[in-house]
What we know:
The protein is α+β, with helices and mostly antiparallel strands. The protein is built from nine helices and eleven strands.
Amino acid sequence: MALDRRPITSDEIMTAAQLAAMPPERREAFHRLRAHRRVPLGEAGRLDFQCRDIAWAELQDAVAAEGVPAERALRAANARLPTGAELVAVLRSPLAPDDVDYLATHICLSVEGQVIRGLRDPGAELAAPVLRFPFTPWQIEKFTAPGVTVQVVVTHPPHGLVDILSDDVRHALVETSTEGTERAGPQSARSTTTGTWSLGCGQSRLAWKTWAPVSAPFRAGVTQTWSRRRPRSALRQSRAR
């Protein structure tokens, strides 16, 4: 997970003329990079996993197209960069602000059953929550290893979800720049479970699992949901009393 952690400097902010002169192939490379690093969360929205190239591109958009003051846009861009052995994602959600705040505390990654909680960064200067997923050396080693199960998990009822990340997605998330996006290629099919369930970072009441094949995030897919829950165990019922 050797992501580029160099801070973006003010010297890297391009003028409108420089952006207009950017080769189309370079722009397309940024679009591919963004696409491969987006992980859908069903109706709850998506996670946009960050890297230096994405933060740099969004900095240019903020300054040139949206008129955001350069100093403010630069701080926001650098706040999204990884600072250690971690992945960083921006949570994009159509839910109401209070629901988004709650959702941000109920998102995890799982590497072979080991839970990596998403930690909200209170210092990020973005309206959307920025989540940091800190990895141990073992989790880093396993993250892109063949045959390893890596999942994104949401335990926010009624938007609970379990999504198995394909090999292509896992490799794309550790790419350091647009130069590696060609290798990522199309995302393979995967299984998604949605509903209310727990993987150690939320409620412990399990729902009946419904598995459905889902295509890549930017193609039509099928996701099934449910609202039925298993009854609480006798132990949990006694605690509830």
